[in-house]
Amino acid sequence: MDNQIELISDGDGLAVIGSPTAVERFLVSEGLPSKDLGLPRLGSVLSAGAEAAQVGSEIAANSGRWVKLTKESAHLADQYKLMKGSGPGVRRAVLTDKGKIKGHLELVKTPMAHLNNPALLAGAAGLMAQLAMQQTMDEITDYLATIDEKVDGILRAQKDAVVADMIGVDFVIEEAMIIREQVGRVSEVTWSKVQATSSTIARTQAYALRQLDALAEKLERKTAIGDLAKTSEDAESTVQEWLAVLARCFQLQDAIAVLELDRVLDASPDELDRHRVALRVARENRRELISRSTGLLMARMDAAAGTANTKVLLHPTASKTVVHASNHVAVAVVDFHSRLGIESDREALDARRWADAATEARDKALNTGAEGVDAAKRLGNETFGRAKSMTGKLSGGISERALRWRGNGEECDEEA
């Protein structure tokens, strides 16, 4: 059926499978960019036999494209009523394009045989997971490129052995990815070179997270505005460095996962779906760890900015420094989160201008209501009366002393 397509969603992306013409027509009608899913690679998941050969030929005649789930593409899951699929976290629907134009796709109750093959569905989900991770890797590459000079300086100047080890692992994994691209699979030899590298990357990630936690703890301990300004400036200059290290760690861990799925697909295809789910859980745990540390740091930075804003009258320069550093770090963290798929929602804090703070203090003093005004008048009258009385007493005392001094002076003259 040339007008039949299948939609598969795993929460990160959407696979569109069907005849090349139907797939292309669907993607064009929706205006969605896509990547090749790589369906021919799933030949290895088929068992031997005539039926398998038939399904294999059907796969060869069909096309598969992958679309990243974004605000623009996520609505498709609801629009076409994707139902629970054969694997955990996977939803699917088979549609037929009767009118061959957008808006005429209908659910199919009896799809083609190969679209119901559990092994193929698991394989397609595995390919989708790889493409989702490769998409994140590309976005991290773009992120690191925007701060290229800083990253080079950070990674080249690092004297910490932990970070130096990560740089060495980087070369090994990059080589394995190149071989995979050229050969089309991950052999046992290639896998043997990278399978032990994950512990080194995990150690580097833990080290970078500890650096961010230490900054957060340092901010929490500071109370004096001068100390907060100094610590905030230090955070502003170093947070970007550790975020770059964390981004690189996440990228390398995704690369290892891509290689790992290829290896499982080649060696134990029946375990592919379980392995995919396990890798997804591990990936979410890494994101949670990173989100927790960066979130704690931002909370401490925001608290410092709040303290600075309450002291802007007495310390205008230091207060502005703290808030500026907090906003600078926030921008860096939100950008970093977006590349790793971590949701962030943080509005920039504005440094309170000294004049605004002074005006607020004046308004609070004046805006006391009628009772406050009367009390102020009474207090003013009483104060004026006391002041007048004191002035009179003071004047009288001065006059008396002046007369005494004059009398003493005259007596002295007579004696002279």
Would you write up a description of this structure?
It is a single chain. The chain is of the alpha+beta class and 416 residues long. It folds into 2 domains: 4-121, no CATH class; 147-358, no CATH class. Helices cover 69% and strands 8% of the residues. The protein has 13 helices and 7 strands. Strands 1, 2, 3, 4, 5, 6 and 7 form a 7-stranded antiparallel β-sheet that branches. The radius of gyration is 36 Å and the shape is elongated.
Give the topology.
Layout: E1 4-9, E2 13-18, H1 20-30, E3 35-36, H2 50-60, E4 63-68, H3 75-79, E5 83-84, E6 91-97, E7 105-107, H4 118-146, H5 148-157, H6 161-183, H7 188-194, H8 198-221, H9 225-267, H10 272-310, H11 316-340, H12 354-366, H13 369-415
Antiparallel strand pairs: 1-2, 1-6, 2-4, 3-4, 5-6, 6-7
Question: What do the pLDDT scores average to?
Answer: 76
- The structural class is alpha+beta
User: Helices and strands, in N-to-C order?
Assistant: EEHEHEHEEEHHHHHHHHHH
Q: Give a short account of the largest sheet.
A: 7 strands, antiparallel
The termini sit apart by 137 Å
Poorly predicted ranges: 99-113, 368-373, 375-384, 386-416
Describe the global form: elongated
Oligomeric assembly: single chain
Total domains:
2
Radius of gyration: 36 Å
Number of helices: 13
Helix content: 55-70%
- What is the tally of beta strands? 7
Strand content: 5-15%
Describe, in short, the structure shown.
The chain is an alpha+beta fold and 416 residues long. The protein is 69% helix and 8% strand.
List the defining traits of the structure above.
416 residues, alpha+beta, 2 domains, 7-stranded antiparallel β-sheet, 13 helices, 7 strands, elongated, disordered C terminus
